[in-house]
Design goal:
With 180 residues, this protein is α+β, with helices and mostly antiparallel strands. The chain folds into two domains: 43 residues, Single Sheet (Rubrerythrin, domain 2), CATH 2.20.28; 125 residues, no CATH class. The chain has five helices and five strands; from the N terminus they run βββββααααα. The protein has a three-stranded antiparallel β-sheet, with no helix packed on it. Helix 1 runs parallel beside helix 3 and helix 2 runs antiparallel to helix 3. It is rod-shaped and about 100 Å long. The model has no long low-confidence stretch (mean pLDDT 77).
Amino acid sequence: MKLLKLVCPSCGAKLEVNSNLEKFTCNYCGVTSLLDEESITVKNINSKLSNCINELKEYFDNGNYQKCYDLANKYLIEYPNNKKIKEYIDNSEEYISEIFASNMLKKYEHWKTKSFSLQELGADYNKIKYYRDNYESETIEKAYTILYQLKKGYHNAMIILVIGLLSILFLPFVFTGCTK
């Protein structure tokens, strides 16, 4: 048994393939290819998967990480064990998280002069917390810190507001009870 050192025509992974085989499947991207031992050439026979991976590569290389992420998740349903598609999902999400964190820093940069709804703040906080839990980044950490402080500030303000309302409601009863 002779092993041939080849490169996958779809993803470029280095492979060792038994020379007795007519076709083989890449362990990395899952594309099945034909092997012509006489000329030691490889022909891609799984063009649909190859086209999917090439499309993901194009979106990723052009910086369209959200489109790459969405398509990769769609393709993963059809090719659930494909490592290359999973890699595009992970890499795209990492870039998306970085972009989201940068946008949050810009959005909340002047938070003292702007007002935000608690619902909007909560949604942004939950998303940045998810990214913080999954990726290490200075930008994500800064955005998380600001959103955490804002959320904490809103909660403290709500507690003060509730205490103030309760005191307004019950203060007359306290004074009325004292005069009798």
